[in-house]
């Protein structure tokens, strides 16, 4: 795993927060919003809370209700749902109690890699992509006004790229007392490369250019993530930019590492 976050060319501070931990199989990326620098407070709370919940879960101290045996998907699902819930609760209560943080919130994409699989939860328009061979696809679907217009055939994806309503999300963490995260699970294959990014990258560069950049530097994730930031800045750098890359080197069964504790919950 490797990742970079950058303020871009037009913002005087960075409201994105990122975290990744290959040993835990955890990736978190949050893009904050709110006046008086409250966006960076919201994204920071979200990342801190999610890391805390996942850590407790992997120490077997987090209460979970697991409906099905012989699969880690219920565990990963419950952990991510709980993590987003507590992040939302913490941001919302902080915004209610501190006037300078009123209305703050954050988009979010977070994932757990486990048992040669990937569980991802997202809220808003921060994205997850997958590069598998020559196929580069977006795995998450934006929770945004523009995506709703695309789904309703009101505009095309190309028209959406040039719209003035790019930043209107329909869901965000911490804005209301509860939030609904979207969760999915995917099989992971050796050689896969996953990109987690804020809209500071996806709004500036099209998918083809992003895929080409990742492919060109795929042997060096640190360099590749840095090149993605440069790509967004070269295209205008209008927003904060964050990118995390994860390359799957080999299969990773659940009986290795911290996830072995999750396996034990089913025995």
UniProtKB/TrEMBL annotation:
InterPro entries for this protein: PP2C, PPM-type-like_dom_sf, PPM-type_phosphatase-like_dom
Q: One short Pfam family name for this protein?
A: PP2C_2
- Top-rank taxon: Bacteria
Gene Ontology molecular function:
protein serine/threonine phosphatase activity
Residues annotated as domain PPM-type phosphatase: 1-248
Q: What is this protein called?
A: Stp1/IreP family PP2C-type Ser/Thr phosphatase
Question: What organism is this sequence from?
Answer: Iodobacter ciconiae
